[in-house]
Design goal:
Blueprint: H1 9-21, H2 26-40, H3 55-58, H4 72-83
């Protein structure tokens, strides 16, 4: 089935470039966008509350509240030092 869309020429060129890079067609990109829109029913993405998560996902939760003044970079470098025995 065919569908005709009116899209800005500059945008069409960019979409074609993306399709070429992804080794797909403009039609396939449009189809995927429409599918996502229909599946989401137009609702914006919303994080789930802890009550809505399944038990196996909750098992990955280490802390409910962030640790104040936690130095992520220092912890990451500490992890790398331990991993590579530096």
């Amino acid at each position: 089935m065919k569908l005709t869309l009116n899209i800005e020429p500059g945008l069409i060129s960019r979409i074609k470039e993306v399709a070429k890079k992804r080794n797909t067609s403009v039609s396939k990109i449009a189809e995927n966008i429409f599918k996502k829109e229909i599946e989401s029913d137009g609702e914006p993405f919303r994080m789930k509350s802890m009550d809505e998560l399944s038990d196996w996902v909750k098992a990955f939760t280490i802390s409910k509240d962030p640790i104040p003044d936690f130095d992520h970079k220092a912890e990451y470098h500490k992890h790398l030092d331990e991993k590579y025995d530096l």
